[in-house]
Amino acid sequence: MVTAPLGTDGYVVAVDVGGTSLKGARTATGGEVLETVEVPTGRGADAVDQVLSLCRSLAGPRTVAVGLAVPGLVDSDRGVVRYAANLGWRDLPLRDLVADELGLPVTVEQDVRAAGRAEAALDRDGAGGSLLLVVLGTGVGATVVFDGLPVVGDTSTAGEFGHVVTRPGGLACTCGQRGCLEAYASAASIARRYHAAGGDRSATAAEIATSVDPLALQVWQEAADALGLALAGATVLLDPAAIVLAGGLSRAGSRLVDPVHRSLQQQLAWRDAPPVRLSRLGSRAGQAGAALVAWEAAAALGTGRPAGRTPAPRLRR
Amino acid sequence: MVTAPLGTDGYVVAVDVGGTSLKGARTATGGEVLETVEVPTGRGADAVDQVLSLCRSLAGPRTVAVGLAVPGLVDSDRGVVRYAANLGWRDLPLRDLVADELGLPVTVEQDVRAAGRAEAALDRDGAGGSLLLVVLGTGVGATVVFDGLPVVGDTSTAGEFGHVVTRPGGLACTCGQRGCLEAYASAASIARRYHAAGGDRSATAAEIATSVDPLALQVWQEAADALGLALAGATVLLDPAAIVLAGGLSRAGSRLVDPVHRSLQQQLAWRDAPPVRLSRLGSRAGQAGAALVAWEAAAALGTGRPAGRTPAPRLRR
Asked: Which Pfam families match (chains A, B) (predicted)?
């Protein structure tokens, strides 16, 4: 649940624009999710129409803002989706399109950063709003959050954690490099490696995670070790208060967290590893983050504070 | 030169407490360094006495604050030096010691973070006050600066970039790990590796940097490649506006910057490398950063803003 900043009343509409489905919600000041809608995502202009239609259907007279979470390369400052492969969007001025249609303030945040904001807001008492969120799905992405705000980067491309090289000269990655984390620890890579090594060709990454087949155990452990190495590098540089694992692979629960934490600690000889835990918001994190950013924008309009620097509101589970 | 925030008058005293020498300065509102003092550093209580004595000698009736930059593990919020091996300090409440003695506001910042603040303030027009500063000296340290503020980390240990593993299973590092960046790219490691491989045993890292001996070229290139790999990992995660190289090895100039930039680009198949440049402030960076933090504290006392969140004042060369 998302709690609005003090002094903000009404509702926000939040939509997580995923490659598979659009997840929309209307959330109230008290943090209650009042209404949710989920539809399969189309592509290109169809997906834009779906976003508009979803926002219209969820918005009401007391809606104060709309928050969108979008995958890919997102320029939040200008509200432009520079590139979203799964949606077929390139240089799409999504904020202005939706704002013109609905006559409301609209925020656009990249989905991983939105999720990171939501997790950090939820975790504020524990980790001071600072953490490293790693999303382990078909690919591997991440966001670094400091004091509640995600690192966007100079070219809006921060968080490409899947392309940290963990095995110099190792497996070829789709990005053109060798030895990327993603070549070992994404759901797609884990399944591919298990199949290529002679494992059951119908097994998914989720099944490999819980299998006791020695081959599955080995592929899973190699994924955990690559993750541990990449996380060790991020830990010595950034000293995060917490590492949060999200995405499809996180459904493996302790079968993921325990070996990753062990591997991380083994690769940090001289300091304790930070706590590693599962995402608390799971598949709702992107939408919760979109709502959070929208609340911030609404609060900023009310108080004149710039949205990006508004203290993040509290999120409760 | 350090320019004070608007509305701050007077002088600050800034001291960079190095393991080799204490570098003190008195700087004016306009940014002018009015007076400098440098003395060889003692150890333990002697070094504390030297800091007090240096501050007393530089302070005057219009001094508004004292800024100290200290190596090691520094808790800036409490003004405590938790551990500084070269100085023989442990859990030293330096801020309160100096404040009690001088009756002035005192700030204590870790030296690499202070340098990063100063470089970022200087670079604000170029890089928006965000950068990765890497100090290549006897060891290898770094700081990540966002919007003018350095990342401190949850346990104040962010920036241990020398212990990013660049060669899994590689050379033993003093920290207990294998393959750390520092085992390849610190001045000490470069010299040790060159000597061990049969190179002239009197050659320093600086001499190896400019040597045309194939063995020297190889050791130097291996250092650049390890650095390139570690920087590539930081780049994909953080997308910094600039990478700034400082410390003793940076005196090699383009002999350092060019191969590091080349290696970084080679290890980033799918994106342009951020610009890599030398520190603009060189050995004055720690002191300039200490002055900057002291000016911020003085401004914050004047305006009631918390020091850590005061926009960093402009720094000119």
From this structure: ROK (PF00480)
Give the pLDDT of residue B30: 67
DSSP string, B71-130: SSEEETTTTEEEEEGGGTEEEE-HHHHHHHHH-S-EEEEEHHHHHHHHHHHHTHHHHTT-
**Token reading at A142:** 């991440």
pLDDT digits (tens, 9 = 90+) for A29-40: 766 889 999 999
Residue type, B81: V
Angle at B159 between CA A260 and CA A76, to 5 degrees: 80
The answer to whether B295 and B2 have CB atoms below 8 angstroms apart is: yes
pLDDT, residue B310, reads 37
pLDDT in tens, A165-181: 999 999 999 999 999 99
A276: which 2 tokens? 């590693």
* HSE-CB of A232 using CA atoms within 13 angstroms: 32
A169 in reach of chain B (CB within 8 A): no
Cα–Cα dist B183/B164, whole Å: 10
Residues of B in contact with A234 (CB under 8 A): 237
With a CB cutoff of 8 Å and minimum separation 6, the contacts of B76 are B107, B108, B109, B110, B113, B152, B156, B308
- How near does any CA of chain B get to the CA of A309, in Å? 11
For residue A63, the SS3 value is: strand
Q: For residue B42, what are the contacts with CB-CB under 8 A and spacing of at least 6?
A: B49, B50
A186: burial class by Cβ within 10 Å (0-12, 13-18, 19+)?
buried
Condensed to tens digits (0 to 9), the pLDDT of residues B39-70 reads: 999 999 999 999 999 999 999 999 999 999 99
Backbone φ and ψ of A90, nearest 5°: -145, 130
Q: How many interchain CB pairs under 8 A, A with B?
A: 117
The residue in chain B having the minimum alpha-carbon distance to the alpha carbon of residue A180 is B233
Q: Where are the alpha helices (DSSP H) in chain A?
A: 45-58, 94-102, 111-122, 124-127, 182-185, 187-196, 205-210, 214-238, 254-266, 285-303
Q: Which of B32, B86, B22 is nearest to B57 (CA)?
A: B22
A174 touches chain B (CB under 8 A): no
**What ipTM goes with this model?**
0.90
Element housing A89 (H / E): strand A89-92
The total of other beta-carbon atoms located within 10 Å of residue A168's CB is: 17
pLDDT tens-digit series, residues A215-259:
999 999 999 999 999 999 999 999 999 999 999 999 999 999 999
| pLDDT tens per residue across span B181-217 | 999 999 999 999 999 999 999 999 999 999 999 999 9
Whether chain A has a CB inside 8 Å of the CB on B232: the answer is yes
pLDDT for the residue numbered B104: 96
Radius of gyration of chain B (CA): 20
Please judge whether B164 and A267 are an interchain contact, meaning their C-beta atoms are less than 8 angstroms apart: no
Q: Tell if the CB–CB gap between B144 and A237 is shorter than 8 Å.
A: yes
Domains and CATH numbers, chain A: 11-115+282-309 (3.30.420.40), 126-278 (3.30.420.40)
